[in-house]
């Protein structure tokens, strides 16, 4: 895949899972450079259709929300709302704590926690994390307004059910960006012949008329649904990245 927006090599270590952003056990953190590239390619599609900012971004398999949080920190100026959901209650506490860092109050709280660790243990890794968090704080403070962040439990491939958080999103989601289960570390919660088809079907009522869906999966999984049109497909190592929109 050609990097169009994150073409210049740079360090993303401030976003490393377990440094400032917390690591949710049993989930995989998504590469920050790739996340930012995919986000910007999706944004270019929305901008081309006249939707330039104020996006609602949703990840229906959010895990510890490392992906959403890195996008929220780097691209929060475009975003009105960031929402994650996951079927596993155990990861949602971490997701909430990570998502809080999209805004200055949450990042300041994290800096205080990290400073307490420096005081208690005097480790250089904690001091480096404080320095990373201070750089990230400067980034989130630049935008001068907060992003609404929320997360909740929801089965993305189950029978549709009501959810106070997600039902409020109906017709409002501009951008779905998700890294679905694959590989040995994370699996779908239930057997399904076509989990991504089910995911797409469940997403339909949430989507705004102009919206884009970016799904990252391994190459074995089919990314297809009759109600969606494929915009493009990229390949990066073992992953496929498929961009889709609703058929009109
Ligand atoms: C690859 S991980 C996502 C990691 C996330 N992108 C991050 O950066 O932290 C995939 C997630 O899908 C979740 N998952 C599995 N089955 C699901 C389902 N039926 N509905 C919603 N989430 C599900 C897993 O619990 C796991 O957290």
From TrEMBL:
<dbReference type="GO" id="GO:0032259">
    <property type="term" value="P:methylation"/>
</dbReference>
<keyword id="KW-0489">Methyltransferase</keyword>
<dbReference type="InterPro" id="IPR029063">
    <property type="entry name" value="SAM-dependent_MTases_sf"/>
</dbReference>
<dbReference type="Pfam" id="PF11599">
    <property type="entry name" value="AviRa"/>
</dbReference>
<keyword id="KW-0808">Transferase</keyword>
<protein>
    <submittedName>
        <fullName>rRNA methyltransferase AviRa</fullName>
    </submittedName>
</protein>
<dbReference type="InterPro" id="IPR024268">
    <property type="entry name" value="AviRa"/>
</dbReference>
<dbReference type="GO" id="GO:0008168">
    <property type="term" value="F:methyltransferase activity"/>
</dbReference>
């Amino acid at each position: 895949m050609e990097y169009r927006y994150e073409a210049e090599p740079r360090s993303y270590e401030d976003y490393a899972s377990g440094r400032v952003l917390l690591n949710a056990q049993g989930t995989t953190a998504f590469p920050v450079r790739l996340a930012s590239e995919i986000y910007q390619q999706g944004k270019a599609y929305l901008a081309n259709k006249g939707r330039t900012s104020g996006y609602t971004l949703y990840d229906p398999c959010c895990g510890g929300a490392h992906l959403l949080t890195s996008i929220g920190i780097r691209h929060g100026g475009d975003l009105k709302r960031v929402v994650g959901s996951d079927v596993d209650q155990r990861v949602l506490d971490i997701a909430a704590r990570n998502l809080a860092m999209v805004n200055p109050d949450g990042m300041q709280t994290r800096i205080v926690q990290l400073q307490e660790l420096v005081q208690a243990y005097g480790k250089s890794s904690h001091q480096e994390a404080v320095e990373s968090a201070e750089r990230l704080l400067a980034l989130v403070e630049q935008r001068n307004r907060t992003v609404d962040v929320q997360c909740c439990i929801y089965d993305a491939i189950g029978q549709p059910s009501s959810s106070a958080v997600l039902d409020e999103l109906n017709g409002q989601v501009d951008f779905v960006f998700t890294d679905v289960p694959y590989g040995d570390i994370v699996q779908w919660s239930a057997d399904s012949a076509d989990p991504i088809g089910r995911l797409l079907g469940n997403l339909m009522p949430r989507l705004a008329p102009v919206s884009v869906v970016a799904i990252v999966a391994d190459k074995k999984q089919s990314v297809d649904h009759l109600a969606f049109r494929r915009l493009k497909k990229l390949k990066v190592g073992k992953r496929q990245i498929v961009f889709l929109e609703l058929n009109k």
